[in-house]
Amino acid sequence: MRKDATDPREFTFEGVSMGEDGALGLKGEVHSKEGLLFAGEVISAGAAGMTEAGLDKRESVRTGELIDTKSESNLIKRALIAALGKTGERFSDKLKSSQRFSFVRGPLKTRVLITKSLSH
Fold first, then answer.
1. Rounded Cα distance, 90 and 112, in Å
2. Tally of structural domains, the chain
3. How many CA atoms within 13 Å lie on the side-chain side of 90?
4. Residues 66 and 84 in one domain
C-alpha cells in the first residue's frame, strides 16, 4: 500500500479497511454461483418428480396400495430417478461449498485500521 500515488515507498501490513460511515469493511458487489447451482438442483429434483409420476402403477388387490408394474419402461424410469437424485445431491454439495467474493471498484480513498506492521 502507498500513502498516495506519488509516494514511492510501499508499506506492508495487516489491517481492516473502514467505510465512509466508519464501519469496518467496504461495501462491494457480491458474486457467487449460488443462483445457478440452486436452479440446477431445482430442475434435477423437478425432473425426478415428473419421472416418478410417470411410473406405470397398478392397485394391489390385497392392500389397495399402488404398486409399480414390472416393465422395462419402469426400470428405465427408476434408473433415471436415481441418477437425477444423485445429480441433485451433487448440486446441493456444490452449493454448500460455493465460493463467494466481493468486488469493489477503485481507486478509492479509505481509512485503514492497522493491526500489525509487516514492514521493516
1. 41
2. 2
3. 9
4. yes
